[in-house]
C-alpha cells in the first residue's frame, strides 16, 4: 500500500535484516537509499531483484533536490522505501527532512524497525539502560567537544555517543576531564562484525587504553550516569576557586 517505508538495514552482519524489510524491498514501487551501492549489495545477498524499479540516491547533499520526486511518487499513490547506509534511518543518518515532509503533507509513514548501533551497544555495555541519552557525534574540536560534554554532565542516564576511531582517544580524555575520571564507561567497536570488541572501565582507564592502542572500525562510546556522590575535576576546580575568592575577600 502507498506510503514512505523507512527500513532499518544491518550494521555489520548482512543477515541482521528483518523479513518484513525484505518484503518491503521486494514490493515497493520506488527505492531510495543514502548509498545505492550498499543497498544493491544487500538486495543481492538476499535475492531481492530490483527489476525495472527506480532506485534513487537520497542523502544530506541532494535531499532538497530529490525529495520532490519521492513526494510526487507518494502523491501518485506509490510505495517508496528509504534505507540509510546502515542501521536505522534518521539515527545519525539522513531521513529526517523526508519523514517530516511526508508527515506534513499527510502521506502514510511506515517504519520497519531493525538494527541500530545505539541499541546494540546499550545491550552489550552492562551500563544502566532504564534511561539513556543518545548524543550522536560530538563536535570535532576539543573546546567545542568539552562544552558539549559539560552540557551533558547532569543527564540522569547513560550517555551514548558515536565516535570516529581517529578521535576516540581525545574524546575519552576530554570526557574524563569534564565528567570525572571515575565514571564507568564502555567502548563498543565493530558491533555484529568479525572484530567486535567491548572494552569496559573507568573513563581514565579507557582513555589510557585508547592512548596506547589505535582502535579501528566503527565505535560507540557509552558513559555511565553521574554518581551523585562523585566529584569531578571541574567540581574541585570550582570549589578551589571559590575558596580562594573567599580568602581574598577576607584578606582585603
Ligand atoms: N544509522 C546508524 C544506526 O542506526 O546506528 C548510524 C549511522 S552513523 C553515520 C555511523 C556511526 O554509527 C559510526 O561512526 C559508529 O559510531 C556507529 N556504528 C554504526 N555501525 C556500528 C557498528 N557495527 N559497531 C559500532 N558502531 C557502529
From TrEMBL:
The keyword NAD does not apply. It holds the Pfam family RsmI_C. Residues 4-207 form the Tetrapyrrole methylase domain. Keywords: Cytoplasm, Methyltransferase, rRNA processing, S-adenosyl-L-methionine, Transferase. Its main location: cytoplasm. It catalyses: cytidine(1402) in 16S rRNA + S-adenosyl-L-methionine = 2'-O-methylcytidine(1402) in 16S rRNA + S-adenosyl-L-homocysteine + H(+). Gene3D superfamilies: Cobalt-precorrin-4 Transmethylase, Domain 1, Methyltransferase, Cobalt-precorrin-4 Transmethylase, Domain 2. SUPFAM superfamilies: Tetrapyrrole methylase. InterPro entries: 4pyrrol_Mease, 4pyrrol_Methylase_sf, 4pyrrole_Mease_sub1, 4pyrrole_Mease_sub2, rRNA_ssu_MeTfrase_I, RsmI_HTH. Its EC number is 2.1.1.198. GO terms for cellular component: cytoplasm. It is found in: Cytoplasm. GO terms for molecular function: rRNA (cytosine-2'-O-)-methyltransferase activity. Transmembrane segments: none annotated. CDD domains: RsmI (cd11648). Catalyzes the 2'-O-methylation of the ribose of cytidine 1402 (C1402) in 16S rRNA. PANTHER family: RIBOSOMAL RNA SMALL SUBUNIT METHYLTRANSFERASE I. Belongs to the methyltransferase superfamily. RsmI family. This is Ribosomal RNA small subunit methyltransferase I. The gene is rsmI.
Amino acid at each position: 500500500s502507498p506510503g514512505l517505508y523507512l527500513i532499518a538495514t544491518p550494521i555489520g552482519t548482512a543477515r541482521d535484516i528483518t523479513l518484513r524489510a525484505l518484503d518491503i524491498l521486494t514490493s515497493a514501487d520506488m527505492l531510495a537509499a543514502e548509498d545505492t551501492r550498499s543497498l544493491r549489495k544487500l538486495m543481492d545477498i538476499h535475492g531481492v531483484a530490483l527489476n525495472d524499479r527506480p532506485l534513487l540516491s537520497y542523502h544530506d547533499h541532494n535531499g532538497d533536490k530529490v525529495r520532490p520526486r519521492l513526494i510526487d511518487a507518494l502523491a501518485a499513490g506509490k510505495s517508496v522505501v528509504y534505507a540509510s547506509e546502515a542501521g536505522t534511518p534518521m539515527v545519525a543518518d539522513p531521513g529526517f527532512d523526508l519523514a517530516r515532509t511526508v508527515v506534513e503533507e499527510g502521506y502514510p509513514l511506515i517504519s520497519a524497525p531493525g538494527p541500530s548501533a545505539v541499541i546494540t551497544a546499550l545491550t552489550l555495555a552492562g551500563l544502566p539502560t532504564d534511561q539513556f541519552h543518545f548524543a550522536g557525534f560530538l563536535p570535532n574540536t576539543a573546546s567545542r567537544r568539552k562544552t558539549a560534554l559539560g552540557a551533558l554532565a547532569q543527564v540522569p542516564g547513560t550517555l551514548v555517543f558515536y565516535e570516529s576511531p581517529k578521535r576516540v582517544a581525545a574524546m575519552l580524555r576530554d570526557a574524563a576531564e569534564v565528567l570525572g575520571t571515575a565514571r564507568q564507561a564502555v567502548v563498543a567497536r565493530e558491533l555484529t562484525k568479525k572484530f567486535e570488541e567491548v572494552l569496559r572501565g573507568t573513563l581514565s582507564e579507557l582513555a589510557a587504553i585508547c592512548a596506547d592502542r589505535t582502535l579501528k572500525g566503527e565505535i560507540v562510546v557509552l558513559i555511565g550516569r553521574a554518581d551523585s556522590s562523585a566529584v569531578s575535576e571541574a567540581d574541585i576546580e570550582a570549589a578551589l576557586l571559590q575558596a580562594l575568592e573567599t580568602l581574598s575577600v577576607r584578606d582585603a
